[in-house]
Amino acid sequence: MQNKKFVFQNVLMIILWSLLLNTNISAKGLPEHTTKVANGVYTFGDPAAGYISMFVVTKKGVIVVEPNNTAHSTAMLKAIKKVTKKPIKYLLHSHNHWDHSGGGQVFRDVGATIIAHAEAYEWMKANPHDDMVLPDESWAGNRKNIELDKRTIELYYFGMNHGLGMTVFRLPKDKIIFIADIVTPNRLLFTIVPDFNVKEWIRTLKEIEEMDFEKVIFTHGSPTVGTKKDIAGNREFIEDLQNAIYAEFQKGTNPFMIPNVVKVPKYEEWAMYDEWLTMNAWRLLLDGHMGPFPWRPDHPYEMNK
């Protein structure tokens, strides 16, 4: 009886060690700057370099979100090939800006279909760049699904907020969303807050907070994978800075001095607080003084939002 118990214990230990060893091998086996977020869902990118992408592996191929630039895309393609031998089927753009929409040729060369929202597509067509290729397809409206094998990626367009054609991606099965630019957890707004309609940005964030998801992949900021709390945190920072600026007006502070004196101590541990707070304040002050900008009329397909 004791011998059987001893043998059973040894077998159990071998199984446990095997599981641990396989887990370590699997973790170490991932390519550099690649993280597994869920089954078949990966992020790629060096946070120190400032850009994160997502790719989704299915039995019939791979969907890539966010090429950024040729160097990033080239390294990501190499990483994908180490994870799977499946072909790249789609490359999806989040929005129009050159620093996110470059590098598409890398995936076109391996047969991927490149897709962007119609708003982004039209801008790309009118504003060519050496590192950006025009997408193969565009889509209009507020919603589109990309399906591959039994995997669905939902594409959401929320109207004005940042850039043109800004798309949020949702994996309903995994309850994961991917967000570019409009949320940067634990970091101040980017420098002078370029190409953001602040009013519509806040509206968009509130709408995203109502979506059904558990994890968020961010192109910028830390952590690169977060939760709804990070989205709410970004929105609250914008609102708190607006309120702090208004409080200075109420105190009679010279408007031209407000950006230099306004403080929001709650966020002083956030990245770039000392470097960017004054620039953030100037942008929100001008928005409050001049009115929301940039701005455009709603497209017809936005009327029923």
CATH architecture of the domain at 32-228: 4-Layer Sandwich
CATH superfamily membership of the domain at 32-228: Ribonuclease Z/Hydroxyacylglutathione hydrolase-like
Strand order of the largest sheet: 1-2-3-4-5-6-7
What portion of residues is helical? 25-40%
Q: What is the CATH topology descriptor of the domain at 32-228?
A: Metallo-beta-lactamase, Chain A
What do you see in this structure?
This protein has 305 residues and is α/β, with parallel strands linked by helices. The protein has a domain of 197 residues: 4-Layer Sandwich (Metallo-beta-lactamase, Chain A). Helices cover 39% and strands 20% of the residues. It has 9 helices and 13 strands. The strands form 2 sheets. Strands 1-2-3-4-5-6-7 form a 7-stranded mixed beta sheet. A 6-stranded mixed beta sheet has the order 8-9-10-11-12-13. The N and C termini lie far apart (71 Å). The N terminus is likely disordered.
